[in-house]
Specification:
Rossmann fold; 648 residues; seven-stranded mixed beta sheet; six-stranded parallel beta sheet; single chain; elongated
């Protein structure tokens, strides 16, 4: 058994070892695998009980046989195995006897189903969301791999019978035979080939989301596939020819009846039992057991990484110090190559069917994907060569360029249609960020005591030649101008000047004459963290700083002199006229979901593995709580950059 699975068992309380079972020992076997008989034989002569181990129903992006991915959960059954109806399993007992009427549990189930639909997830989730599905009105017949233990001896003839039944019950409808991912990958054969007994039937192996495919289906036919279970939550009543765990509860049309199963369950109830109560879920980042909701968000980011990166990239305009983490993050599916010019990048992209990644505003061919830092970036400055924990990759624009819509604008506009589960998730994420006092750079620095007798306005300085200022400033284009505006509009306020950390460090432009600061501001918050400064502010004034977004998360009113990504949505007081593509109707939760969940991607700083936003917050929090654990890699990169500068 692999170390990963041993770890899950250990966290669940099982002490895993090899050898002859002793008194009170159990024998663990993998489901009904070809070698399971050995464990059963040992258990028989040792008179030891058996623990059956199987993958949980949300496993990974690809099957284990295809890419070697490890499961995010296990089904640990002390009575049987969920796909063998010969003996009641723990899952069947749950479904048959548990009350399953707890309101909180059922609400969790409903929210989780919403999230699976929203993110297009299933047991396997290697779906290309850009593929067009056939016109509605077809029937789906789900194939399975030959010899799969869940078939309980069923073979080609039973699957042919299922196909004929689908044709008879839906005359005139096209029949799509959904091929198993392992069959598509050439790992195991299915039950159908091109010689089909029904003319209207055809093999369908496109990596289309099952949720999208189910939307246009007249009916779903399965023997015992987990995909049939997923069809239930897509509002189908699948026709079932085997005896899977989800049959017999009134949610399927069953060819074979099980007299033990006479109870009628709702979709929420069967989900609660099979996805919340029964499996053991695992978070490999935190190395801890977790809930199905944690697995859903982790699987969502892994699936997104595969969907976006699987064609590979030709990268352009990437400084050398950035290449290591870019290769680790965007090069996991297909090796990332770095091009020296737009012409070279375009040539490699066309030849290898790659996409072009370009950093920020660097010169690149039309249609390139633009990469920038995310809004929870790191513990430390990018100008100091600290690699980012999050990046955004925008296909249509750049979030700080208000002249045209970006992917972020589109996500914010669509946020009105978020499912309740994602809104609640966003609320929890904001709470986690605020509790940890996280910001974009997470620089340390306490704030001096600020008097509270007058309104306290935080005036946020920026790097004056930064692209967000160059593109988003209107009228007020310098930090000195912003200070002057602050005093002109707030004669009696207590003005707190917050210089940008890159400017304070002497790494970027944007310094203001100390005499001007002394004349206008009441205090300069030098070397003060963003979180500490915000905790003392009654209002924030900025041109386009991300600090304005962080203020909104904290419930602080924000005045925008320019056109930042969070302005124009009805959440800020905007001095400048806003772009027409922002309609002013977003909620704070919708804005935050787009900016923190839908738009950026997060990465493990050591491995480059995809992280969920929640996992990224945990990583940043751990870094904040361990101030001496600064990456050696960052120190080496800074030294390398210094050597390069001295050599020029």
């Amino acid at each position: 058994m692999r170390r990963h699975m041993r770890r899950i068992l250990a966290l669940k309380g099982w002490d895993v070892s090899t050898g002859v079972p002793g008194t009170d020992d159990w024998v663990g076997i993998w489901g009904r695998s070809p070698t399971a008989w050995r464990g059963e034989a040992v258990a028989g002569w040792a008179d030891a009980p058996i623990l059956s181990v199987e993958d949980a129903f949300l496993r990974s992006v690809h099957p284990g046989r295809v890419r070697g991915e490890l499961p995010l959960g296990l089904c640990l059954d002390e009575s049987g195995v969920h796909f063998d109806a010969g003996v009641p399993s723990d899952l069947e007992t749950l479904l048959r006897t548990s009350e399953l009427d707890d309101t909180q549990l059922l609400n969790r189930a409903k929210r989780a189903i919403e999230q699976l639909r929203y993110w297009h997830l299933g047991k396997y989730s290697a779906y290309d969301l850009e593929i067009e599905v056939p016109p509605p009105g077809y029937v789906i017949v789900i194939d399975q791999t030959r010899g799969d233990a869940a078939l309980q001896g069923a073979g080609v003839s039973e699957f042919a019978e299922m196909l004929v039944a689908a044709a008879d019950e839906h005359p005139g409808a096209d029949i799509l035979i959904k091929t198993h991912p392992e069959t598509i990958a050439g790992k195991r054969p299915g039950h159908f080939d091109k010689n089909l007994p029904v003319d209207r039937a055809r093999l369908y192996d496109a990596p289309v989301s099952s949720w999208t495919l189910f939307e246009g289906a007249l009916g779903v036919y399965t023997h015992s596939s987990t995909l049939g279970f997923e069809a239930i939550f897509a509002d189908h009543k699948p026709r079932v020819f085997g005896q899977p765990f989800y049959a017999g509860w009134g949610l399927t049309s069953d060819e074979t009846l099980l007299t033990r199963r006479q109870r009628a369950l709702t979709r929420a109830q069967i989900f609660a039992a099979a996805m919340i109560l029964y499996p053991t879920w695992y978070d490999p980042v935190g190395d801890q057991l977790c809930d199905v909701e944690d697995v859903i968000v982790a699987l969502a980011v892994r699936s997104r990484a595969w969907r976006e990166d699987r064609h590979g990239y030709a990268a352009l305009g990437m400084r050398r110090w950035k290449r290591g983490f870019l290769r680790r993050t965007f090069g996991r599916e297909k090796r990332l190559i770095f091009a020296s010019s737009s012409k070279s990048a375009a040539k490699r992209a066309e030849r290898d069917n790659r996409r072009i990644l370009a950093w920020g505003q660097s010169t690149a061919p039309e249609g390139s994907i633009r990469v920038e830092d995310g809004f929870l970036r790191s513990r430390g400055l990018g100008a100091a060569l600290v690699p980012p924990l999050s990046l955004v990759a925008d296909r249509t624009g750049l979030y700080y360029d208000p002249s045209k819509p970006s992917d972020l604008d589109r996500l914010i506009a669509k946020s009105a249609n978020l499912p309740l589960a994602e809104i609640e998730r966003t609320t929890r994420l904001i709470k986690q960020i605020l509790q940890a006092d996280l910001s974009k750079y997470n620089q340390p620095g306490d704030c001096p005591v600020i008097p509270t007798e007058r309104p306290r306005i935080l005036v946020v300085g920026q790097v004056e030649d930064d692209a967000s200022v160059v593109l988003g400033a209107v009228g007020v284009k310098t930090n000195a101008d912003l200070l002057a505006l602050a005093r002109a509009e707030n004669a009696d306020a207590y003005l707190m000047w917050k210089p940008h950390p890159d400017v304070e460090a002497g790494l970027r432009n944007g310094g203001v004459d100390p005499a001007v600061i002394s004349e206008i501001a009441d205090i300069s918050l030098s070397n003060v963290s963003a979180a500490a400064a915000l905790s003392n502010a009654d209002e924030v004034l900025t041109i386009t700083s991300t600090l304005g977004f962080e203020a909104l998360l904290r419930g602080i009113p924000v005045v925008c002199a320019g056109l930042p990504f969070y302005a124009g949505w009805g959440l800020t007081r905007d001095i400048a006229p806003q772009p027409v593509h922002r309609d002013g109707t977003a909620t704070l939760e919708g804005l935050a979901h787009a900016c923190l969940i839908g738009y950026p991607r997060y990465f493990d700083p050591d491995t480059g593995n995809p992280l969920s936003p929640e996992q990224a917050v945990a990583v940043l929090t751990a870094q904040m709580n361990a101030p001496d654990a600064v990456s050696r890699r960052s120190a080496i990169q800074r030294l390398y950059q210094l050597v390069r500068r001295l050599g020029r």
